[in-house]
Amino acid sequence: MKHLIFSLLLLWALQLSAQTPVEYAIAFPNAVHHEAEIQVTYRDVPAGPLEIRMSRSSPGRYAVHEFAKNCYGFRAFDGEGHPLEIDHTNPYQWNVLGHQGTVVFSYTLFGNRGDGTYSQVDETHAHLNMPATFAFARGMDDRPIRIRFDLREDLHWKVATQLKPETATTFTAPNLQYFMDSPTEISDFQMRTFTETSNGKTYQFRLVLHAPNESEVIDAFKAAAMKIVAQEKAVYQELPGYDYGTYTFICCYMPQGSGDGMEHRNSTFISGNFVLDSSGLQRAYGTVAHEFFHCWNVERIRPRSLEPFDFEQANMSGELWFAEGFTSYYTDLTLCRAGIISTSDYVSGISGGLNAVINSPARRYRTPVEMSQFAPFSDAATSIDPVNFGNTFISYYTYGKVLGLALDLSLRNQGQNRSLDGFMALMWDHYGKPEIPYSVADIESTLAEYAGEAFAHTFFDHYIYHSEMPDYQALLNSVGISLSLAHPGQAFLGASMEQNDQEVTISRYPLFGTPAYIANLEAGDKIRTIDDQTVTSVDEAQSIIRKHQPGDTIQMQIERFGKMMRIPVLLMENPQLQTELIQAPAITDAASSQQKMWLTGK
User: Could you give the CA distance from residue 467 to residue 396 in angstroms, rounded to a whole number?
Assistant: First the structure.
């Protein structure tokens, strides 16, 4: 379990000599074709088959990912180099038979997805997520691990990781859980460092950046990271006790990468394929703010449902609205407090989450807890069959984000210097600092301790265990923000459309309750005419609709399954919401004061 990994460091050091380490080695002679050669050596193996597996999940991801599909060329030898029999018992497992206590297992990995879950190998880097890369043996979870990276000197590669270094190419982990939680970037990256003090200890922060223009932007990136660290530290009033005294931002923005960010105990793995210009840097800073907040919330304030992390199946949790969603709330709030984005931009951005939740029909089917439990089907999970998620699922990131907003403003309205900052600090004291995993009930009981039992019961009963909505208009008004219709009086069809040549098609399943849904329009319908006017572009369709008023009925001719149909559609008012700063003199002194206390940097 993560919360035990480093509570007994001294004991582990004593046991290291008593337990035979698992030894990994990885090399990249065929990097141009995205291959890595991997070898793992097990000694003092008990009698019987050694069960070696590839992971099916990865820390920070909750869905199943079949990493075994990218591995091939399996071989096994004994300590003398003699071949051993391999029994391929299921798609993810290889049993090594007939050993005498030593097994050397090797295989080739193909990796060409550079994100927070998979691995990518080419001649610019080896971007390694450990579960996607390294096999493990059942029953050896508690053994220490040593890994050697055979670097491509011709490519000037070096290693960035949270693993403990022995040399520039050899690193260790106390056990399998820590090893699998330690992504590694091997490339000709640039690095900057800075320090931050907490509780009398000085911690080193390492910013690793691998990007085509890394030398041009790394100093600006470092300055923003320093501001983010300071603001998020202020929420909890201290830093975590980083193992080995370091925290590493591993950032890789290469053209062949994929956008992602993944939290880990003493590091984060951030990737993207966009250029780090001014707008690209703003996107990157948001990911940094989100992932760094996780070193408290999720890595140490940790859901009990994720302990210990199971590498053999999906990991379901009902706490993700808090673990991921509240972290998402603090993402933009941190950028605002740090002065990286303006107050106006922060406030206008609030409406995105509110629209996604308030106007979603999915609350009819699932509570925030149940949305969280749905993560194995949504968190980078893939399917080839169509799904109806638009009507049945709201991301726990987004749902939790707007719940965090509601709780923060509700606590501030209580007075007594209460805020979500204070509540998160209390969660840290109770569960994060001692590393005691929590449940949903523990969040409620801690909120009761902080703000009163009646308040906590009402909030959880209405908004967590059920899917009611807080009064966001009143809450936002209390901090000088208006919530209103973005397009009052505008007619609304409620159908997403796409254009292919001169053909317009409904591209998504209409949401329950929209005019399109009520009129029985469906994804795949080809729109031929609206009000007897031929439609050949999305702009034409929208222009015709905009000429109408809410309550008008339009006539649509569509083609479905090769058959022409004429359908009347009763338009409604566009429900999209907007959030704006209330300007003087309309803003009250009390609201202005609350807004400053909420959004001003610490």
Answer: 13
Examine residue 424 and state whether it is found in any structural domain, yes or no: yes
Residue 72 included in any domain: yes
Cα angle 11, 13, 18; round to 5 = 90
pTM: 0.95
Q: Degrees (nearest 5) of the Cα angle 88, 91, 94? A: 30
Closest to 354 (Cα-Cα) out of 370, 332, 338: 332
Paired sense of beta strands 201-210 and 190-198, if any: antiparallel
Q: 426: part of which helix (H) or strand (E)?
A: helix 420-427
Cβ 298 vs Cβ 269: under 8 Å: no
Looking at residue 583, the DSSP 8-state letter turns out to be P
* Ordered DSSP codes for 382-416: --SS---HHHH---HHHHHHHHHHHHHHHHHHT-T
Residue 503 and residue 435 in one domain: no
* Structural domain count of the chain: 4
CA distance 483 to 578: 6
Q: Which domain holds residue 519?
A: 491-573
Q: Divide the 602 residues of the chain into consecutive groups of 10 and give the mean pLDDT of each group.
A: 46 56 99 99 98 98 96 98 98 98 99 98 99 99 99 98 99 99 99 98 99 96 99 99 98 98 99 97 98 99 98 98 99 99 98 99 98 95 91 98 99 97 99 99 99 99 99 99 99 98 97 99 98 98 98 99 98 99 97 98 91
Instruction: Tell me, yes or no, whether 6 and 151 share the same domain.
Output: yes
What the block records as the tokens of 119 is 């691995």
Element (H, E) at 558: strand 553-560
Strand pairing class (145-150; 22-27):
parallel
Candidates 143, 126, 153; CA nearest to 178 is 143
Q: Which helix (H) or strand (E) holds 236?
A: helix 214-236
Task: Please name the helix (run of DSSP H) or strand (run of DSSP E) that holds residue 186, with its range, or none.
Answer: strand 184-187
| CA dihedral of 290, 291, 294, 298, whole degrees rounded to 10 | 110
The answer on 532 and 481 residing in a single domain is: no
- Count Cα atoms within 13 angstroms, Cβ side, for 412: 24
The SS3 of residue 322 is helix
291 shares its domain with 413: no
| Cα separation, 99 vs 79, whole angstroms | 9
Write the CATH number for 476. Answer: 1.10.390.10
- Determine, yes or no, domain membership for 593: no
Q: Decide if 329 is inside a domain.
A: no
User: What one-letter code names the amino acid at 560?
Assistant: R
Nearest-Å Rg of the Cα atoms of the chain is 27
